[in-house]
Amino acid sequence: MPPLTASSASSLARACTRQTLALPRTLAVTTSAQQLRAKSSSETAQTSSFDSPFGRSKESPSTLKIPNFGKYASPRNATSNKVFSYFVAGSMGLITAVGAKATVQDFLVNMSASADVLAQAKVEIGLNSIPEGKNVIIKWRGKPVFIRHRTASEIAEAENTNWEGLRDPQPDSDRVKKPEWLVMLGVCTHLGCVPIGESGDFGGWFCPCHGSHYDISGRIRKGPAPLNLEVPQYDFPTEDTLVIG
Ligand code: FES
Fold first, then answer.
1. For the chain, which has fewer Cβ within 10 Å, the N-terminal or C-terminal residue?
2. Phi-psi region for residue 29, left (φ > 0), alpha (ψ -120 to 50) or beta?
3. Residue 28: predicted pLDDT
4. 210 close to ligand 1 (CB < 6 Angstrom)
5. Model pTM score
6. What is the pLDDT of residue 93?
7. Looking at the record's lineage, which domain of life comes first (predicted)?
8. What is the SS3 assignment for 235?
9. What is the predicted pLDDT for the residue at 225?
10. In the chain, where do the E strands start and end?
11. Alpha-carbon span 198 to 204, nearest angstrom
12. How far is the centre of ligand 1, averaged over its atoms, from the C-alpha of 194 (Å)?
């Protein structure tokens, strides 16, 4: 061990003195903090309505002051609060359902067919105004419809035709509901022209576009058209009324 000089002995003495003085100061600070914690804990116990699960023990006293929210609590009892909550929730649900129903209903009504379109869906014709042996052309859904009041000779001719050998074989009874009334779409089955009535080689209709001839039952007899004139859906609600559509 080296010999102790005067200066090193002095430094050693100063360090020992500093450590001796620091110990009481640390003890003083610790004691003061514990006192503050204890004071805060006692104040919290006096002012707070909340019993905190943390702290409040001798080992670790709480340093938090939990506020009292008592003044925000509802003065009514729990049942009254539930009834009010259910009433508000139910009212909002009812208002939302009514609004949704009105929105969907308006949307569907807007998407449905308008009055003028519905009016064209069916057409009613008074048959008393059509004399025997005459044609009438009406417009239905943008297409011409031929209505022919056939005579007895025309009915006999239509029924006595050998229909099995025709291009589009069909008996006259399949094309009419009443033999005296022939109802057909006035659209040529070749390329869509409107045939001319009471003309052609078979006394029915003739399409001048490419020369198709239809007989008095609207069946194709000659020319390029492949099919008979189409029969639309129709009915006779009364004896002298025809409804197409
Ligand atoms: S469109 Fe009628 S014959 Fe061609």
1. N
2. alpha
3. 45
4. yes
5. 0.56
6. 97
7. Eukaryota
8. strand
9. 96
10. 123-126, 135-140, 143-149, 181-185, 196-197, 203-207, 212-215, 220-222, 234-238, 241-244
11. 5
12. 8
Contact 230, 189 (CB under 8 A): yes
Instruction: State how far the alpha carbon of 234 is from the alpha carbons of 102, 171, 182, 217, 218, in Å.
Output: 37, 18, 11, 16, 16
Residues 102-119 have pLDDT tens digits of: 999 999 988 887 777 776
Nearest CA to ligand 1 atom 1: 191
List the residue whose alpha carbon is closest to atom 3 of ligand 1. Answer: 210
- Give pLDDT < 70 ranges for the chain: 1-63, 119
Structure tokens at 231: 């029969």
Those residues with Cβ within 8 angstroms of residue 143's Cβ, 6 or more apart along the chain or in another chain: 185, 186, 187
C-alpha 189 – ligand 1 centre gap (Å): 7
DSSP 66: P
Per-residue pLDDT tens for 32-75? 555 655 555 455 445 555 555 665 566 656 667 777 888 888 88
